[in-house]
Amino acid sequence: MKENLIINNSNNDNRKEKKLLKEAKKMHYIKYLNLFFSILVTVIELYQITNFVEYPFPLRSTLFFLIILLYFYLILPIFSIINLIKTFSRIFTGNFSISKNVENIFDCIGYNCCGYCNSNNVTSSKYSNLIYGLITLFFSLYSSYFFLKGVIKEVNYTLNHSTYKNEPLLFNFRKRQLIKIILYFIVSISLLIQSYFFHFHDYFLRRGEIYIEFYKRLIIKNRKEEAELIRYQLPRNVEDFVINSGNEMQNVTA
Fold first, then answer.
1. Which domain holds residue 154?
2. Do the domain assignments include residue 117?
3. Which of 1, 21, 93, 104 has the smallest set of CB atoms within 10 Å of its CB?
4. Which of 47, 79, 54, 35 is nearest to 183 (CA)?
């Protein structure tokens, strides 16, 4: 009976260790994928500003359309650059943290485009990327509506008029508008993907005590490569996490 209990405990520990290692490997790849999407968003934003002047939505002297222009040509580009700097810094300096007080998260979201918020805070990036991603997606859908509306109107006009002198110019104009809308969608999807990446990073760090305990166990077992993989995913300053007893491994599946 005792032998069966020992075997069962050993199997459970092995499954828990495999799960922890799998999450650590996922975290390792996610950090670099996050950097890729940060670069992608920044490049697209800078490319759109310098190469496209066509607006895929009607321009009117109203506050709403001024907000759209301000968002796409100032706020979003600044946010994307700061987001890239933060992501790059976290990976190569190993300085990142989480928000323990949820109220403080929303206090800093509005300041992300100005770089006011703590650049090491993963939790704030999770929410800010989600908000910017949803806003960009909304404007992308909004732009698509007016784009399709304009195309349908022009097609009907062309069908009713056999000769249309400005048709080649209009086609090129609409082509550039379509490219711009597609880029908007790519940016919005990229920001939402990054929000998930930051969410997983936040989740990973909130289980920091478990990984620290697991790291110590791997060192004891002389599994140095796996131990280094775990340690590399944790902040350089691990004093932020309170190390409790060795019972942390029992809660890994919770």
1. 2-206
2. yes
3. 1
4. 47
CB 192 within 8 A of CB 137: yes
Q: How many domains is the chain partitioned into structurally? A: 1
Report d(CA 209, CA 221) in Å as an integer: 19
CB 101 within 8 A of CB 59: no
Whether 247 is covered by a domain: the verdict is no
Interval 56-103: pLDDT, tens: 555 555 677 777 778 888 889 999 998 999 888 888 887 887 776 654
- Would you say the pTM of this structure is higher than 0.90? no
Tokens 């004093």: give the residue. Answer: 239
Bridge partners (DSSP) of residue 221 are: none
Q: Which residues of 67-78 are buried (b: 16+ CB within 10 A; e: fewer)?
A: ebeebbeebbbe
Three-state SS string across 104-152, please? HHHHHHCCHHHCCCCCCEHHHHHHHHHHHHHHHHHHHHHHHHHHHHHHH
Summarised one tens digit per residue, pLDDT across range 149-189 is: 877 777 776 666 655 555 666 667 777 888 888 999 999 99
33: in domain: yes
Query: Do residues 19 and 211 lie in contact, with contact meaning Cβ atoms separated by under 8 Å?
Result: no
Instruction: Say which amino acid occupies 235.
Output: P
Write phi, then psi, for 47 (nearest 5 degrees): -65, -40
Domain annotation covers residue 95 = yes
Radius of gyration of the chain (CA): 25
In whole angstroms, give the CA distance from residue 199 to residue 249.
Answer: 22
Whole-Å CA distances, 184 to 41, 60, 152, 154, 167: 10, 20, 21, 23, 26
